Amino acid sequence: MNAAPIHLAIVGGGPTCTYVLERLAALVRDRRDPVALRITVYDLSGEFGPGQVHSPDQTRTSYLNRIVGQVAFAADESVIDAGPLLSAAERPTLLEWCRRKFEETGDPLYDVVAEDWPKRFVHGEALRDQFAGYVEILRAAEGVEVTLRQAEVVDLEERGERFAVITADGAEPYEADYVLMLTGHSSNRPELDPRQAHLARFAAEHPAHLIPSAYPLERSLDPAHTGPGKTVACLGMGLTGIDVLLYLTEGRGGTFERGADGELVYRRCGAEPDSIVAFSRSGLFTFARPYNEKERDIATLEYKGPFLTTAALAELRRTVGVPNVIGGVPKRQLDFERHVFPLIVLEMALIQYGVLFGPEFREAAIRAAQPAYEKFLADADAFADHHEAGDFLVAPVEDLARSTADRVDSVLAGRGALGAPGDALPPLDGAVRAFLTVVYGAERAGALLAEAGDPVAFAAAVAASESPWRHDTRAADHRFSWERTINPVPRSGYASPEEYVETFLDFLDRDIRWAAQGNLSNPAKAAADAAWRDLRGVVIDAVDFGGLLASSHRTFLSVYTPHHNRLCQGASVEAMEKVTALIKSGIVDISVGPGAGVECDEERGLFRINGPVTGAVRHADALVDARVHGFDAERDVMPVYPNLLRRGIVRKWANPGVGEPDFVPGGLDLTPEFHPVRADGSVDSRITFLGPPSEGVMYHQIGALRPNKDHHVIRDILCWIHAFMPQESPAGAATQELERNHS
Fold first, then answer.
1. CA dist., res. 188 & res. 192, Å (int)
2. Per residue in 146-164, pLDDT tens?
């Protein structure tokens, strides 16, 4: 055993801490040489395992933003170099945990399948259980002590080679050799946030009430300010905004009932606010997340793109990358809009038409697009802008789709026959079958094709059929368009707010139907899910550590990250059905439409929301900021980050501009090992930051662990552990290997 114990401090006891303790538990128990560890875990909420966001005691109305089958709590066989694994019984996935819980309790809440959307508190219950189990394993190991402290860490003070962990309760500081910061989601102080400062000043002097951050819902949404007789404005229509709407209605006691026609209806309880005005810059909720058809075989069905690849990025950096020096390392930077986005659009068009017309069309489209693709990689700056580049790349696919659609429509109208000779590609039979399956479903498509021998009868049967997903029934009407994809509700041309609401509800109905069809069967949902979710690793490769020019990085975060969230980070069909019911009931008001802004009405002392597109104006007693706050070490509500900045232990990362201003996202300057670069430029390997503080120098670092996925979170955790964990003695390791070989 190591002579002196290694003292570890983990700040934040939420989900990532649960994963950390799992790896420590497995590694410690597997060792032949005991290791002396003193582990202290701090959590302000005292919710060890779930953390405050996933608390088992939270409202029952909030959904987890992930299906049951995509949540794990431990490393599994898919994680490369994970080290020893716990037994299967000790590391259940969320699905296995729920099934076990259902067997124990019989509660239908836990009777789920992999594709179901769990409530967030259920995830919290499982996290709490798993955390407790991992702590038990650690405490049973020789030389290991685990202390759990409900306290807020406000500062780290250097004391020789260690850091003293300072807490708000004034307790004697714990001195740690290594500190792991897992503080999770936070928010910024409203008086320091340029988006909120004027609203905070107004609310301090008038009856209007500002809620600068929505979570925790149970505390922030006080009925005194958000109850009967009040109008609440919700700024933000993403997942947080949806949580707010459901909490203020269903969470107050309202109920949803499904009518005989299958439509969900909301029944008021009387404890809700009079009205909830939902608005945002786009005027759109996140799109409904599609049924995950890939869950049945993730390794095979997750998309691997032929065009948006890390090899393509490397070639673009070589041909058009702008030389810069990032953190002392030479790097050729790209412009996201000009160099990366056109490839995303190409992939989306290929996927959408490939689903619509079948795999043979897809292969033909890849071949057709290749010359334009190679020309783009050789000189992506030859185009006037990203619109021209995208049109150039998509044109060969679009031409093939147009000719295929004309041939399909000819057959569907009885003017042609399947099986007719010809050398046109792709084969017509496969395109017709794929199109009918998309529009009408596999069963109806089979019945229609059974009549294909008689073109007249076939055309009549097709004309009499209806699409359950409200697809256009002419192939020529299925056109890929990025603009229509991201703005499916027209942003102008409304005679009244009521007309806008009707148009919006029509879109919601279609979007929900498309989501129910699935992320392999629906062309639009497949395109968004594959290009923006499955290929996200390529985008991360483009962005991380100054991969983009400073101004382009700013544009990426402000414009394209919201697009990403709307396209592939949406709420479940069930949640969006509830949102639809709330709008139809009149309690949720979306009539201010896109481009709506909030102003301070000095005369009334209330917030005023103006809808420039619809002409609607609404006044609100309370304003909830339901937007995600980007991490900013200077403005964070947690004092620990401003204090670390003041001490020079950390500094904010800046993307240095080339002939333009630097871009400072707000996150910390970190190494690839997540260690902070101090104010003097030195690296402090005694501290590690995972999660939101790394957002800026890196992208998309926040995420729950997934089963059967070599997840970066586990690899990041292992990087931290291996830095301090003593190596096994040769004798111990040899004995261990011998036993493994004979087991």
1. 7
2. 999 999 999 999 999 999 9
Distance of CA 274 to CAs 248, 271, 336, 489, 591, Å? 10, 9, 44, 27, 15
Question: Hey, which residues does 166 pair with through a beta bridge?
Answer: 155
Q: Which residue's structure tokens are 């926040």?
A: 702
What distance in Å separates the CA atoms of residue 556 and residue 542, rounded to the nearest whole number? 11
What distances in angstroms separate CA 644 from CA 55, 174, 315, 355, 635, one per listed residue? Answer: 28, 17, 40, 51, 12
Strand 209-211 to 37-42 pairing: unpaired
Q: What percentage of the chain has pLDDT greater than the value 90?
A: 91
* The token pair that represents 349 in the structure block: 């068009």
Nearest Cα neighbor of 6 from 29, 22, 24 is: 24
Give all strands of the β-sheet with 178-181 in edge-to-edge order: 144-149, 37-42, 6-11, 178-181, 687-689
Report the sign of the C-alpha dihedral through residues 234, 236, 238, 239, in that order.
negative
- Spell out where 219-298 has E strands: 231-235, 255-258, 264-267, 275-279
Cα separation, 372 vs 391, in Å, equals 10
* DSSP code, position 275: E
CA nearest to 331, candidates 135, 533, 151, 547: 547
**Nearest partner of 689 among 668, 709, 705, judged by Cα:** 668
CB 584 within 8 A of CB 576: no
Render pLDDT for 446-494 as a digit per residue (tens, 0 to 9).
999 999 999 999 999 999 999 999 999 999 999 999 999 999 999 999 9
Strand partners, 232: 276, 622
| 702 pLDDT tier (thresholds 50, 70, 90) | confident
Rounded distance between C-alpha atoms, residue 666 and residue 630, angstroms: 7
pLDDT value of residue 211 = 97
User: In one letter, which amino acid is 302?
Assistant: E
Note the helical H segments in 413-454: 428-440, 442-449
Angle between helices 428-440 and 359-378 (to 10 degrees): 100
- Rounded to an integer, what distance in angstroms lies between the CA atom of residue 587 and that of residue 250? 12
Provide the token pair at 125: 């219950």
Dist CA 91 CA 665 (whole Å)? 37
User: How many CA atoms within 13 Å lie on the side-chain side of 345?
Assistant: 28
Cβ contact 571:288 at 8 Å: yes
Measured CA to CA in angstroms, residue 136 lies from 24, 35, 550, 705 at distances of: 12, 16, 47, 21
Q: Is the dihedral of CA 135, 139, 140, 144 positive or negative?
A: positive
Sign of the alpha-carbon dihedral angle for 214, 218, 219, 221: positive
Q: In angstroms, what CA-CA distances link 734 with 723, 730, 731, 738? A: 22, 6, 5, 6
For residues 546 and 324, the answer to whether their CB atoms sit within 8 Å is yes
Would you say 42 and 10 are in contact if contact means Cβ atoms under 8 Å apart?
yes
Q: Is the pLDDT of residue 726 over 70?
A: yes
